[in-house]
Amino acid sequence: MLFDLHVHTSFSDGKFTPEEVVNKAFSKGLNGIAITDHDSIDGVYFASKQGDKYKNFYVIPGIEFGTISNNEEVHILGYFIDYTNKELIDVTQKLRSARIERANKILNKLYEMNIIIDFKDVLKYSSSNNIGRPHIAKALVNKNYVKSVEEAFDLYLSRGKPAYFERFHLSLDETINLIHSVGGFCVLAHPGLLKDKSIIDDAIYKGIDGIECIHSKHTKLETQIYTNIAKTNHLIITGGSDFHGDPDILGDFYVDLEDVPKMKERFENV
Ligand code: AMP
Ligand code: FE
Ligand code: FE
Ligand code: ZN
Q1: Does the beta carbon of 132 sit less than 6 angstroms from any atom of ligand 1?
Q2: How far is residue 102 CA from its own chain's centroid?
Q3: Pocket test for ligand 1, best of 8, 67, 133, 156 (most atoms within 8 A of CB)
Q4: pLDDT in tens, 145-193
Q5: Above 70 in pLDDT, residue 269?
């Protein structure tokens, strides 16, 4: 039961549609994936429909919420969420509007810096209107203002850089409560990327259910360290690739659901 539990689609900043992602995951021999788009659940339905076409392939409904804690971006994954829940849908719609507002602020700031990117240039990269900074970064590359997406983040878009704007987001507490209120498991995403590791203790204190120990950006040592922290605190150990399209790492990072009985149990009840 091999599952890649961290996968993005075109409903956030992923390159492929949910259907394409499911086809790829199946052809790679995975038994399932969790769809975890940034602040969005819209891809889950389409991925599930596509998953139904394959025998013994399963799609776990998920989301990756972006929150801010201790002045840094903290990502929280929700699994087995009820993606038909009205409150959850309302929150994701509010977050989508906030992303549009933020994109306009970023574009205005860039304009002041003589960097001219049109909103419609950005929309070319965001088929779902769920605009993330990677879409703006791609427009900056396309217009030759920067050489790469990374450079766009380094020069303009990362937290603390000139065109960074904070958008409306839930607090860590609110995020955890919301995921729990819609029946989900709450997992701290890629802790290896956190600058301030005290956020891990804080998230545990606030009630997360698991830690994403296995991740494409974690070293072997990091995976070991976070696995130990999860075990000590009786938390679920999860993992996934954080696939966005390029590079093609879908399924290279995964968990065997046999090793995550609490999740497997839920999944059998679906
Ligand atoms: P946003 O959803 O607008 O907050 O953008 C966050 C997303 O941007 C992350 O999930 C990554 O996919 C991407 N990202 C963040 N930092 C970088 C970076 N330094 N280089 C490339 N992509 C990044
Ligand atoms: Fe992303
Ligand atoms: Fe993330
Ligand atoms: Zn992600």
Answers
A1: yes
A2: 18
A3: 133
A4: 999 999 999 999 999 999 999 999 999 999 999 999 999 999 999 999 9
A5: no
Binding site membership of 133 for ligand 1 (Cβ less than 6 Å): yes
The pocket of ion ligand 4, defined by CB under 5 A, consists of: 64, 242
Residue 166 Cβ contacting ligand 1 at under 6 Å: no
Is pLDDT of 108 > 70?
A: yes
How many other C-beta atoms are found inside a 10 Å radius of the C-beta of residue 116?
Answer: 11
pLDDT band for position 208 (50/70/90)? very high
pLDDT at residue 150, as a whole number:
97
3-class secondary structure for 15-62?
CCCHHHHHHHHHHCCCCEEEECCECCCHHHHHHHHHHCCCCCCEEEEE
95 Cβ contact partners less than 8 Å away, ≥ 6 residues apart: 39, 40, 167, 168, 169
Q: Is residue 82 exposed (0-12), middle (13-18) or buried (19+ Cβ within 10 Å)?
A: middle
pTM of the complete model: 0.97
Protein residues near ligand 2, an ion, with CB under 5 A: 13
